[in-house]
Specification:
123 residues, alpha/beta, four-stranded mixed sheet, 2,3-Dihydroxybiphenyl 1,2-Dioxygenase, domain 1, globular, 34% strand, 17% helix
């Protein structure tokens, strides 16, 4: 039997008020509900559950990403809202922090308020 349902994405927060503001106001996700257990967003068609935790242990790799049409414009908008690029010494990133892969895809990495690593990608 094949799966025919929708995917749900998860990240965690120990600062729910900051996470709500970041995901709603900075990233532009629609708030669906805020419960004692999670703040739930519609992340452009994907449910994102920002789980409320006592402590967050961010992973050293990307945990959630967004595909965008024009990465430069989106990165400039995020930077104007106070988001900072995560830079990696082994990638040649431009002045904004955007890395261009050998196949031409572009990626911008950044953290949410809890240190979860997020990304924007343009293919």
């Amino acid at each position: 039997m094949a799966m025919t349902h929708r995917a749900i994405a998860f990240v965690a927060t120990c600062e729910p008020d900051r996470a709500l503001a970041f995901y709603r106001d900075v990233l532009g996700f629609e708030l669906v509900e805020d419960t004692p257990f999670a703040t739930v967003f519609d992340a452009f068609g994907t449910m994102l559950r920002v789980q409320k935790a006592e402590r967050v242990r961010p992973a050293p790799y990307t945990v959630f990403g967004l595909q965008v049409e024009t990465i430069k414009d989106e990165v400039e908008r995020l930077c104007a809202a106070g988001v900072e690029a995560v830079r990696y010494p082994h990638f040649a990133q431009d002045a904004l922090g955007i890395w261009t892969a050998p196949d031409g895809a572009q990626v911008f990495w950044f953290h949410d308020p809890d240190g979860n690593l997020l990304s924007l990608s343009q293919f």
